[in-house]
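Suppose you are handed a protein chain with no further information: no name, no annotation, nothing but its sequence. What can you learn? This example shows the usual starting point.
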Amino acid sequence: MDWNGALHGLAEVEAEAVVSLQVNLDPSTTPTPADISTRVHALLDEIRRRQPESLSHDGVQQFHRRVERVEQRLADPTDMGLPAGRRMGAVVFAWDEDRLEVFPIHQHIDDRVAVGRRPALADVAARAARADDLLLLVGSREEGRLIRFRDGHAEDVFNDHTEAEARHHQGGWAQMTLQHWVDNAASGHLREVVEHLQRRHAALGRPPILVSADDSARALIEHDLSKELQAAVVGWVGNEHGWGVDRLIEQVDATLAELDRKTEDGLLDRWRDQQGESQEHPEDRLQYVLDQVSDGRVEWLLLPTAPDFPVLSCPDCRRLYAHPGECPLDGSWLETDDGADAIACETLRRAGHVWELLDTDNTAIGQDGLAAILRY
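A reasonable first move is to predict its three-dimensional structure. Written in structure tokens, the prediction is:
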């Protein structure tokens, strides 16, 4: 899925009473279709309770039709109008007379509803930035299988299975000669598998690689990996032969989680470096970050979990502010905006990215709980 294009398009949306709904579909908390239906209907009831009081009569009718469209789209709890594949949640946005977008989410996401002038994009954009593309190479004397895990799907890229000769135990020179031939055949097979991986890796966009191999196969594979492939390998596990689907998915999830942790560590290191180099130490840190967002300087917006910030915006120039009053640029009276979602939308509109901290204590970015990595 082209998350960048989809998020950028949604970030441009501003309309009256935009409806946003997030539903947690994690099987550990929502195991049955009945549980999903109960959860969805509770969220829809909450949206109806949030009908803005300022709507005109026609606006009220449009709002209720909007909610009905969302309800119809999510009517089948086993499908919910989502693409096939593994999913941990779903997000729906509805606005205007007939606009509606539904996205599957492949990481945990909490239930949430919002009715505002913009789509509630903070959580979605943060999930889109997480690792969600991984190649698993299964290599052994016989196996040579490459599986891609992306957007909740698992698909075979290639399967270079071959029948290997069994090891012999008769002793003597004949066995030694035969065993030497068998070992050479295994080495040649794995070399061909690595060469096949090399040819396909660039075409697949050079995603990270997890390798499943026993010790002998690992030594052969490591020997034949190019520098580019060595850099792409993010982990080694034992031969997955005999693994069940659940264990395989657990291993992939653990690897993706580790990639997210490394990404966050790198982002925090960059932020700390910028803090150390910066000559600016603003007392009003929230307004400082909002100024950088409005100026298009933010490459990465770093948000705490469950962010809650008071945000206003100018209806004319769209700049964001932390305090009520008049816009100092054009004198327009500032209007209440959609908090962290407004900050996320304006960041995305200017080709920035959003990252939500993995740890819930949020101490990594200070007590204010909001930070930005600047482009310049």
